[in-house]
């Protein structure tokens, strides 16, 4: 029997990703037992403390064993770290070292949401792509410059290392792993029992564009303000650069350094965010919204919208219009 270790870090990690992983894998084992098969995993919770209190002591987790007692395992699941991920290098170094050691012994590693920060601290993500919660991707990139976060990607699978996007999208990662370690029938069974949409492959529809202004470049900030105030305006990036007495090349470089986007990408994101809000809250047609946010070419609009959300404009409106969501 293989051994699955679900880590229970000290501090305010996300309890749901620990409990959810434990319950679904346990149900998969039970399903195999009913079919007359041996369960795939011996499932254990492991950490560095005998008890971890969460949410101001409202909940407590008592891991089965210490990570020191685990000599070798087959799969490690790292839960979401909530908002402690910026302190990961300092607080979780023993866990990070243990994770690397297990990988080198042959274990596969799966991180949930901001658990990617702990995985990155182990060095195992260096030079690799990964997913994390969309709101933490830029901070992950800043803290670990050798890691390549893929914004909008729900699951990554590279050399025995798995990562996934934020919040309850970890359920899709668990199903992905169950299909790999058990079989597709078992994954489908678990998706029905826990009512998980197996077809999800992107977190793009859930990304809320936060206008990146946590920087000190005053020129970039002024251009951001201008674009956000008038997103439908047809801007010439060359003319904008000239207006602020900056060369086009330097203008692009400063914009990317400050926001992570080129000026054109930033403008596209503003326009798509505006169109998403229009689809969510109005009955305007796709063409009406398209013209309202500054696009003239319907194919270009649909292509950019799909690239950023993973859905067509019509599909987005069907799914997220306020009257359809009631």
What distinguishing features does this structure have?
326 residues; alpha/beta; two-stranded antiparallel ribbon; seven-stranded mixed β-sheet
Give the structure's gist in a few sentences.
It is built from 14 helices and 11 strands. With 326 residues, it is an alpha/beta fold.
What does this structure look like?
- This protein is of the alpha/beta class and 326 residues long.
- The chain is globular, with a radius of gyration of 22 Å.
- 46% of the residues lie in helices and 13% in strands.
Shape: globular
Helix/strand-derived category reads alpha/beta
Q: How many distinct beta strands?
A: 11
> Major beta sheet, specifics?
7 strands, mixed
Question: How large, in whole angstroms, is the Cα Rg?
Answer: 22 Å
State the helicity in percent bands: 40-55%
Q: Regions with pLDDT < 50 over 5+ consecutive residues?
A: none
Strand content: 5-15%
Average residue-wise pLDDT: 87
Q: SSE string, helix = H, strand = E? A: EHEEEEEHHEHEHEEEHHHHHHHHH
């Amino acid at each position: 029997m293989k051994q699955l270790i679900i880590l229970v870090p000290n501090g305010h990690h996300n309890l749901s990703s620990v409990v959810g992983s434990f319950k679904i894998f346990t149900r998969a084992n039970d399903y195999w037992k009913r079919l007359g098969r041996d369960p795939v995993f011996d499932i254990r919770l492991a950490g560095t403390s005998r008890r971890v209190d969460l949410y101001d002591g409202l909940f407590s987790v008592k891991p089965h064993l210490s990570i020191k007692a685990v000599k070798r395992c087959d799969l490690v699941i790292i839960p979401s770290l909530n908002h402690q991920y910026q302190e990961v290098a300092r607080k979780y170094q023993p866990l990070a070292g243990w994770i690397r050691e297990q990988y080198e012994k042959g274990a596969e590693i799966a991180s949930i949401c901001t658990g990617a920060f702990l995985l990155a601290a182990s060095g195992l993500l260096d030079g690799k792509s990964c997913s994390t919660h969309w709101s933490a991707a830029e901070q992950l990139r800043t803290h670990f410059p050798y890691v390549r976060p893929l914004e909008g990607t729900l699951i990554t699978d590279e050399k025995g290392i798995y990562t996934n996007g934020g919040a309850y999208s970890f359920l899709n990662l668990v199903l992905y792993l169950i299909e790999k370690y058990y079989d597709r029938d078992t994954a489908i069974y678990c998706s029905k029992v826990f009512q998980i949409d197996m077809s999800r492959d992107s977190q793009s529809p859930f990304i809320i564009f936060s206008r990146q202004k946590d920087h000190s470049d005053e020129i970039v900030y002024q251009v951001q303000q201008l674009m956000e105030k008038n997103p439908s305006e047809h801007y010439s990036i060359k003319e904008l650069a000239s207006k602020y007495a900056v060369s086009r090349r330097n203008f692009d470089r400063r914009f990317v350094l400050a926001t992570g986007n080129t000026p054109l990408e930033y403008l596209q994101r503003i326009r798509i965010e505006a169109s998403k809000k229009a689809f969510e809250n109005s009955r305007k047609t796709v063409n009406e919204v398209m013209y309202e946010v500054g696009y003239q070419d319907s194919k270009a609009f649909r292509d950019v919208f799909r690239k950023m959300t993973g859905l067509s404009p019509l599909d987005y409106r069907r799914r997220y219009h306020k009257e359809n969501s009631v």
